[in-house]
């Protein structure tokens, strides 16, 4: 499985919105695009998909923008994957009727790997990503003498 640019941008945008979730202010597209270095036109499409998928809400007007539809700890990475890539992308793809014993073994291992991956994505929430980002940004600022 490969991380698509659309999924990466969706996760980055959600990280930006989640980091400011507690202040209750909606973020505008330009703010998210500038903060995360995402092309604005592409971000518009990604945010529309996330809104249709129920992960974010939008408000119109001068003070409008985007907020999370749920708390950051209630949205996991698998939710985002399913919203952006579709349910088909989250299902393991291997031969349905392998013709050889080796093919069966490969299919079984592939499905086990996919299950482990999806379990890991389901266990990581946006809050976990925010916490990891803060941890890594603090580590980058450390000076050693």
Task: Name its key features.
145 residues, two-stranded antiparallel ribbon, mainly alpha, 7 helices
- Beta-strand percentage? 5-15%
The ordered string of helix (H) and strand (E) elements is: HHHEEHHHH
Our count of helices gives 7
Instruction: Report strand order across the widest sheet.
Output: 1-2
Which class best fits the helix and strand makeup? Answer: mainly alpha
Percent of residues in helices comes to 55-70%
N/C terminus separation: 41 Å
Low-confidence stretches: none
**What is the residue-averaged pLDDT?**
88
Radius of gyration: 18 Å
Overall geometric form: globular
Compute the number of strand runs.
2
Biggest pleated-sheet summary: 2 strands, antiparallel
Short overview:
Helix content is 60%, strand content 6%. It is mainly α.
Topology, element by element:
Blueprint: H1 5-19, H2 29-36, H3 40-52, E1 56-59, E2 65-68, H4 77-85, H5 87-90, H6 101-123, H7 126-140
Antiparallel strand pairs: 1-2
Helix pairs in contact: 1-2, 1-3, 1-4, 1-7, 2-3
């Amino acid at each position: 499985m490969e991380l698509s640019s659309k999924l990466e941008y969706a996760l980055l945008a959600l990280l930006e919105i989640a980091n400011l979730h507690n202040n209750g202010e909606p973020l505008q597209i330009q703010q998210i695009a500038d903060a995360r270095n995402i092309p604005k036109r592409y971000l518009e499409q990604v945010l529309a998909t996330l809104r249709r998928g129920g992960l974010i809400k939008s408000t119109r007007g001068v003070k409008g923008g985007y907020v999370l539809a749920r708390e950051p700890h209630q949205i996991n990475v698998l939710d985002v994957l399913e919203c952006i890539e579709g349910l088909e992308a989250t299902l393991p793809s291997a031969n349905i009727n392998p013709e050889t014993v080796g093919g069966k073994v490969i299919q079984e291992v592939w499905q086990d790997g996919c299950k482990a991956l999806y379990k890991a994505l389901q266990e990581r929430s946006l809050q976990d990503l925010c916490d990891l980002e803060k941890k890594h940004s603090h580590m980058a600022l450390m000076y050693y003498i």
